[in-house]
Design brief:
heterodimer; A: mainly alpha; 15 helices; B: mainly alpha; 2 domains; 16 helices; about 70% helix; disordered N terminus
Amino acid sequence: MTTINATINTALAKRSQITYGIALIAVGLFIYLIFGLNTQAGLQTTYGTNLAGSQALTIPDIVVPAQMTVLVMAGIAVFFGAFQLARGVRSTGWLIGILATTFVIAFLTWAAQGKSFNLTGMLSSSFVRATPIALAALCGVISERSAVINIGIEGIMLMAAQAAVVGATVTHNLYVGLFAAILIGALVAALHAYLVIRFKVDQVVSGVAINIFGAGFTAFMSSRFLQKSGDMLNNSGVFPTISIPGLAKIPILGPMLFENNIIIYLMILLVIAMHIMLFYTPWGLRTRAVGEHPKAADTLGINVYLMRYVNVIIGGIIAGLGGAYFTIGSVGRFDEEMTAGKGFIGLAAMIFGKWNPIGAFTSSLIFGFADSLQVKLQILRVPIPSEFLLMAPYIVTMIILTGVVGRAIPPAADGQPYEK
Amino acid sequence: MTDTNKSKPKTPEGIGGGSLRDALRVPALAVLTGLIIGGFAILISGANVFTAYGALFVGSFGDPVRFFTGFQQLFTTGETAGLLRAIYPITESLVAATPYIFAGLSVALGFRCGLFNIGAEGQFFIGALCSAYVGYSIVGLPAYIHLPLALLGGAAGGALWGVIPGYLKAKFGAHEVVNTIMMNWIAFKLSDWLLNGPMKASGFRPVTPNVEVSAQLPRFFPDPIRLNWGLILAFVVAYALYWFLFKTTLGFEIRSVGANPDAAKYAGMSIVRNLVLVMAMAGGLAGLAGSAQVLGTDHWVGQGFSAGYGFDAIALALLGKSHPFGVVVSALLFGFLRSGATRMQSMAGIPIDIIDIIQGMVIIFIAAPEIIRWLYRIKNIKVEETVLTRGWGK
């Protein structure tokens, strides 16, 4: 079995090596033909590096000649493509990175030729937009490391978002809202865990039921109570921005990382904490054992069911936090379907990040970037209908899922109920 | 062994072990329990449960008093107006059930092959848009060409939307649940653009022009009763799917891949081909749901047209145990629920979203029959263990 797999893998590697080379050359040609030929000579693209209202030290903007930059990007892509075909680079991650970077830089330079484009603003908003995706991805990581698939993250976040705004508005205390969101997240996740562990319900089906229930429940509450009472229930305000003294003064990085609200800082802490917990503590070892080989873990005296309950509920708490972000973390009011598929995009980020907290977080940044790019491009009045730009995050999700899922290996027991 | 089999009434294939009564008991109790929990939700929201469910009943079946006076009028004066008014609610329920049958069959077919098609919503929308386009852009064709062409257009559009995730699943192992949901969002954005741009009728509202009369599914009664041939078509398609799944080799292959892909592969069946085929067919069925809605009922497409049909379809496919006949029965039930809920909303002020809450509950109960058995103290029901979905990339 292993020999067969190894043969297939070598064959696949050979094929993907050629595929990547061709893809890079194709992107290079695309950049040249579409962006290069449509960029006027002599125009410049200005990348703004300062954000209005930020504490960061001001630095000069980056100004580049538009056509030259686009052509250089095309050249780089073609060069690496040819190199890949001739010699072959082992690391596909680097190749995808080069492919994406050259394309995005060329695209932005073309789109913003003769205009100014705020780079810091976009990076900062990528980070903000990545937050709910990263939290959803972390929820997925922790559940699936103990072998429970949670596809109901979307529904959990929706319910938590509503609970947060109502809790915060009624008590005039944002922290009560945060607590309500976390509580709802934990409760719904506990229900999911109970259904899939105790009753061995198909995990995906249970998750979908939670999504349908969540969408229906929040819409029901919204039209029955929130809309009628107006601001009485659904106007909470948002968490204030906290600047970290000193660090916030760093140009570009300061506004991006150190001028955010509490939920975003909590997200960063969670990424680090979960990484340490999963890979450097006995609890993490047990979790992974339960996810990879529950029978062996059980033999060693680990309580498989308990580990799964605990992990899924912790996941629910994290998803609840993600839900809170949508209301009390960003706009201060609840709208129906406001999560807009972020829970599912989080799952794709989890897979792309290979079920690692840090990997999941980095891939969330890519989705956040795609999301914020789409907003900025609408402002730049790119001659592409806004609806197509809005599709970008979803298309990126599909491409990434397709490109990596064969290589990303889930925990061995993922999705399987355990029977003693 | 053979004697007991002979004495029992014959149940259609694929319903599962045991008698028809056993097969129906859990779904029926699941719906009942869902309604009871929905009743609590109504109670908590501060409305009268009996008023609400009364309105639900009248909204879905019609007012008994009106039936009585309608018949009386018919026999005394020969006037049909009163009776037509009386049957209006029940025909509306059947109209609502029509797209449910198609969409439910779409999800059920996926389940039979171990695929979870959450994308029925997007496929429905794309199918409707394609049918509408064929329906309004071609003028002057006779109905016997134009109508099949419009239906085919819808099926093809839906199939395209389904085959993309199917191919990605079969070739690359990308999970169809995430990809079909992404395709849903892409369909919504695409339709936003189409309805505001290329397909927009003259006027302010983002809707398509009306389809030509030659592309409309004929109606049985004068306006405003919208019951049309779409329902008959749905029944025919349901039977055809039953025949395909249980009486043909290809259907057997599909079910084998769903039940045990390793064994199917070992027996020489192509998993890739079956997965792609099933997703194309499932997409086509969901596309037909959109076609039936636009060609039979609405005659135009607007924003928010699909209104959750794709998600309801999941619940009713589970409720119907992924069997075409079960799907038809559950689709009728959901049609009556939805249609009645509209009246419940206007009469008792209960938001129509209560139906989603009930549906979420029904899905859970169907997927966990143990809860129902525990609640109602039922013992010894033979339950067919079916694999519904699989983990990532398998």
